Amino acid sequence: SFFFFLLEKSRKIRANNQDANAAKEFAGNQISTSKYNLLTFLPKNLFEQFRRLANAYFLFLLCLQLIPQISSLAPVTTILPLVFVLSLTAIKDASDDIARHRSDSQVNNRETKTVVGGELVTKKWKDIQVGDMVRLENNEFVTADIVLISTSLDNGLCFIETAELDGETNLKVRQALEET
Question: Which residues pair with 92 in a beta bridge?
């Protein structure tokens, strides 16, 4: 991990300067936890399913049954059970992935307040960019990785809960930059 740290290039960002930061092509804030889209579902899902030994075995048997000199059974005796199992698994995988798409959309479309031109503007989480100044209220979710500039407390402290990240429910103390 130390070796990786030495290889990482330093990055300079400009606070609240969208044009300068956009030119550097930083990663966006949109999340995507889904595995598939409409074009990739069938090939990816079949690939994943045939990586399972049982499915690959039945596919191999099906190929052997297609050769009339080897098999005395009709290929349909293997095709139907295999297609049935593959279809059920594909339906379950599609259902799970649709739920992930919905969850991603819900998170990406949450709103937060950012400072633009000295005024507070409402932005969707997916539109937050590196360098944006985000205003967070009490008990509000943090929209992205942030540098704490200031808090409403005189000592610059704030308390955060990271239960969604690491499962720990104890509040953690963070302090704003002393320079601000």
Answer: none
| CB 176, CB 156: distance < 8 Å | yes
Write the DSSP symbol of residue 160.
E
Q: Taking phi first (over 0 means left), then psi (-120 to 50 degrees means alpha), and beta for anything else, what does residue 156 get? A: left
CA dihedral 59, 65, 66, 71 (to 10 degrees): 170
> Could you tell me which of 111, 130, 178, 124 has the C-alpha nearest to residue 151?
178
- At residue 154, the pLDDT reads 82
pLDDT in tens, 110-167: 999 988 888 899 999 998 888 888 888 888 888 777 777 888 888 888 888 888 778 8
User: Distance between CA 116 and CA 85 in Å, rounded?
Assistant: 54
Angle between helices 76-108 and 53-65 (to 10 degrees): 140
> Is 79 within 8 Å of 62 (Cβ atoms)?
yes
User: Is residue 31 a contact partner of residue 101, using CB atoms and an 8 Å limit?
Assistant: no
Q: Which of 99, 102, 82, 97 is CA-nearest to residue 45?
A: 97
Residues 20, 137 contacting (CB under 8 angstroms):
no
Positive or negative, the CA dihedral 119, 122, 127, 132 is positive
Alpha-carbon distance of 28 to 47, in angstroms, equals: 29
